[in-house]
């Protein structure tokens, strides 16, 4: 198990953890910084001060309870649907690739792609406005056309690591994907 | 290549014996379905397996041996198990052994025929056999339609799900069953059953037959010639209540049919229709009990006439405003007075008819309210029809205004062409130049001027009545949206996704369990359930109405030209 620090495209610190479970099974997890107490208290106090201001103007105490309600509901929605704490990639040679996103509330959303559908794992570059963004993606095979690509699945979309981190992940994946090319196909 | 062994977690505490299951050679994986423990006679086992193969159409065979020693390693037993490899020849022969209560099992293979003695890696995947057996993988692979080529590259997941689902009979027998051989299957949860469900299954057959008989009577009566005369058939097609009743009748016919559902989609559709009908009727009865308590329906009937009067009064005020100088615009007095008086007379007629009917309103409403017990959707459709009937005069005004405006616009465009010396060629569907005589030009220009200066008046009347009509259409549209929601929501699928999420599977997910060096890689395979959005999309029931087919631009164009708009058209209605 090894953990190394990297940076994301927007500058926030990320931690890449690599685990080798067996010769053909590897797990790569990217951890993002958790929700900071100072940003949470800043947003909450801003909302409550604004609500208090409206209360002073309108003399309606419903505004205050509505503000508390909205803050609570908003926080729950943010933690459960928006804030991703960790994105991990589990590569099991001969079975498939599994992508997991874990949210701050503990929810995990998983996708599993079978190895027979995976054509390759590549680093692509995208030009967005004035930036060039590198991203890692899985190319899926097209059932009709053996040389074609039917779908591109981008990885680590919310962490957006920089090229050095992507190269580490790419090398690990390729080592396992190479194994399936070495092994003879079905007898 | 890597060997993958799928082991059911319910057999982890089985006693020593042999493993039976299916070997999928293209994927180098073994799906273990059960453990046969001692004592057994090899010949009987082979007979049982061939019988099983015939019944389930799954290629079941003996795959290896399972050694569960509670104390230390029993040498003699392990040798005996190795010798079994010679009796049941299977390539490769898998040997799994578990010592005591240790979590880490050792797994090895015996390859007799292969030339290279390279140690291949083994991955042990645990799966919950009951859940995989009951679940259904989405998107479903239609076995009848797929060709042999596609079946070959069918994903390994669907092959595994298929294998386990078809071997239900193997899962259901355990060591307490009497039989020639003893299978081990610890069913820790037991087989799910309930008395109510069983009783309902027994009662459903005569109930279905009775329902089919009643439905055939009703549909026969509906199709009778008496109801097909022109005024009545026109009325039935316009009332949305009749559409909804016909739709529900069709649903009832689907669920009361004797044929069993062939596959998963049909079963889910039947269940969804049944639950939807049940909820609909329950909500309708609730609504009915609320309406009839404290005589609310009497109050409703009492307020209906004053509301209609109020609407008529508001319309009269509106017309008086239009006949004056609306919004500061100057109207053409003569045309204004003619149109205003015409519409005022209509309102007067309408009010007289309403007052004529007022003694009967309460009784009619009381009996019509009773039909809410047929379902909430029927009650909402009746509400929508009542709104349509009460605002019939607004619809009439809209049609008059639109026709007048449309005529004026066409007249204007044709005379404008005359003004410029052109003509519309009907044969060639294009504008051609044409030389007119002087008197034609003179009259044409005169008419053009008259129509142009009368345009603001007509346009204003048209605008006002179109806005009113659109308001009524929006209200009716919202009611129909609600009706469609109740009709098409697949409640049974949503509840199934909530309570038994493993039955609707979008895929699988793997979890890596604790590892130990030297032992095979251990993974746990769990079912990844379908998201709620895909559940609703896959299983939603088809409805009879289609939503506005006109895009916004064509709608605006029609409004500008004065063509009549029919925003909510039903499927199957002939296009005008």
From TrEMBL, chain A:
Residues 88-157 form the Phosphatidylinositol N-acetylglucosaminyltransferase subunit H conserved domain. GO terms for biological process: GPI anchor biosynthetic process. Pathway: Glycolipid biosynthesis; glycosylphosphatidylinositol-anchor biosynthesis. GO terms for molecular function: transferase activity. Keywords: Membrane, Transferase, Transmembrane, Transmembrane helix. The chain crosses the membrane at residues 40-57, 63-82. One of its GO terms (cellular component) is glycosylphosphatidylinositol-N-acetylglucosaminyltransferase (GPI-GnT) complex. InterPro entries: PIG-H, PIGH-H_dom. Pfam families: PIG-H. Belongs to the PIGH family. This is PIGH acetylglucosaminyltransferase. It comes from Asarcornis scutulata.
From TrEMBL, chain B:
Keywords: Membrane, Transferase, Transmembrane, Transmembrane helix. InterPro entries: PigQ/GPI1 (IPR007720). One of its GO terms (cellular component) is endoplasmic reticulum. This is PIGQ acetylglucosaminyltransferase. The chain crosses the membrane at residues 203-222, 273-292, 338-357, 364-391, 397-419, 440-464, 470-495. One of its GO terms (biological process) is GPI anchor biosynthetic process. The gene is Pigq. GO terms for molecular function: transferase activity.
């Amino acid at each position: 198990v090894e953990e190394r620090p990297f940076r994301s495209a927007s500058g926030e610190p990320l931690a890449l953890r690599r685990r080798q479970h067996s010769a053909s099974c590897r797990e790569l997890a990217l951890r993002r910084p958790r929700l900071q107490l100072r940003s949470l208290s800043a947003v909450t106090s801003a909302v409550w001060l604004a609500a208090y201001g409206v209360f002073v103007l309108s003399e309606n105490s419903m505004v205050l309870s509505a503000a508390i309600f909205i803050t609570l509901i908003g926080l729950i929605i943010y933690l459960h649907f928006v804030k991703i704490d960790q994105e991990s990639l589990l590569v099991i040679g001969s079975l498939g690739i599994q992508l997991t996103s874990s949210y701050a509330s503990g929810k995990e959303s998983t996708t599993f792609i079978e190895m027979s559908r995976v054509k390759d794992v590549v680093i692509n570059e995208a030009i967005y406005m004035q930036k060039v963004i590198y991203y890692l993606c899985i190319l899926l095979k097209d059932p009709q056309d053996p040389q074609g690509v039917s779908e591109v699945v981008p990885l680590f979309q919310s962490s957006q690591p920089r090229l050095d981190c992507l190269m580490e992940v790419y090398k690990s994946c390729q080592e396992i994907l190479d194994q399936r090319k070495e092994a003879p196909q079905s007898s | 290549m890597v060997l993958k062994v799928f082991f059911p977690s319910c057999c982890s505490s089985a006693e020593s014996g042999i493993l039976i299951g299916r070997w999928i050679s293209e994927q180098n994986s073994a799906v273990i379905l059960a453990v046969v423990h001692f004592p057994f006679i090899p010949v009987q086992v082979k007979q049982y397996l061939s019988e099983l193969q015939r019944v389930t159409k799954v290629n079941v065979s003996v795959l290896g041996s399972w050694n569960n020693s509670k104390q230390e390693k029993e040498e003699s037993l392990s040798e005996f198990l190795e010798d079994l490899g010679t009796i049941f020849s299977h390539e490769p022969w898998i040997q799994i052994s578990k010592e005591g209560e240790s979590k880490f099992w050792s797994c090895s293979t015996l390859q007799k025929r292969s030339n290279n003695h390279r140690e291949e890696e083994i991955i042990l995947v645990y799966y919950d056999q009951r859940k995989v057996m009951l679940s259904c993988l989405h998107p479903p692979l239609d076995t009848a339609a797929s060709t042999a080529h596609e079946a070959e590259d069918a994903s390994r997941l669907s092959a595994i799900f298929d294998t386990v689902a078809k071997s239900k009979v193997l899962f259901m027998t355990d060591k307490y069953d009497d039989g020639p051989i003893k299978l081990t299957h610890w069913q820790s949860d037991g087989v799910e059953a309930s008395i109510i469900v069983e009783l309902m299954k027994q009662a459903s057959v005569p109930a279905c037959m009775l329902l089919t008989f009643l439905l055939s009577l009703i549909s026969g009566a509906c199709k009778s010639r008496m109801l097909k005369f022109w005024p009545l058939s026109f009325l039935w097609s316009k009332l949305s209540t009749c559409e909804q009743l016909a739709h529900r009748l069709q649903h009832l016919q689907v669920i009361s049919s004797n044929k069993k559902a062939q596959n998963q989609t049909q079963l889910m559709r039947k269940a969804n229709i049944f639950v939807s009908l049940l909820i609909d009727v329950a909500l309708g009865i609730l609504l009915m009990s609320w309406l009839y308590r404290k005589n609310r329906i009497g109050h409703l009937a009492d307020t209906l006439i004053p509301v209609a009067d109020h609407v008529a009064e508001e319309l009269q005020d509106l017309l008086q405003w239009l006949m004056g100088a609306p919004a500061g615009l100057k109207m053409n007095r003569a045309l204004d007075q003619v149109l205003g008086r015409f519409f005022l007379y209509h309102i007067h007629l309408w009010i007289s008819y309403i007052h004529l009917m007022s003694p009967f309103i309460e009784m009619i409403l009381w009996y019509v309210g009773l039909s809410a017990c047929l379902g909430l959707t029927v009650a909402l459709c009746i509400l929508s029809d009542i709104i349509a009937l009460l605002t019939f005069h607004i619809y009439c005004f809209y049609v008059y205004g639109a026709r007048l405006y449309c005529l004026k616009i066409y007249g204007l465009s044709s005379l404008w062409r005359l003004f410029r010396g052109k003509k519309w060629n009907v044969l060639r569907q294009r504008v051609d130049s044409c030389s007119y005589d002087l008197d034609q030009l003179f009259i044409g220009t005169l008419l053009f001027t008259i129509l142009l200066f009368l345009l603001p008046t007509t346009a204003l009347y048209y605008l006002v009545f179109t806005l009113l009509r659109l308001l009524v259409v929006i209200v009716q549209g919202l009611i129909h949206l609600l009706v469609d929601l109740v009709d098409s929501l697949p409640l049974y699928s949503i509840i199934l996704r909530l309570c038994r999420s493993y039955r609707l599977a979008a895929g699988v997910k793997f979890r890596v369990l604790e590892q130990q060096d030297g032992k095979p890689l251990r993974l746990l395979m769990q079912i990844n359930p379908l998201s709620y959005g895909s559940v609703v999309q896959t299983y939603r029931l088809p409805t009879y109405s289609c939503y506005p087919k006109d895009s916004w631009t064509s709608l605006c164009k029609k409004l500008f030209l004065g063509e009549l708009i029919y925003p909510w058209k039903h499927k199957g209605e002939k296009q005008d």
